Amino acid sequence: MAEEVVVLGLWSSMIAMRTRVALAEKGVEYEYREEDLRNKTSLLLEMNPIHKKIPVLIHNGKPVCESANIVQYIDEAWKDKGPALLPSDPYERAQARFWVDYIDKNLYEAGKNIWSTKGEEQEAAKKIFLEILKLLEGELGDKTYFGGESFGFVDINLVTFHCWFFTYETIGNFSIEAVCPTLIAWCKRCMQKERVSRILPDPRKVYDKCLFLQKYYGVP
Question: Where do the domains of the chain lie, and which CATH numbers do they carry?
Answer without folding.
Answer: 5-77 (3.40.30.10), 90-216 (1.20.1050.10)
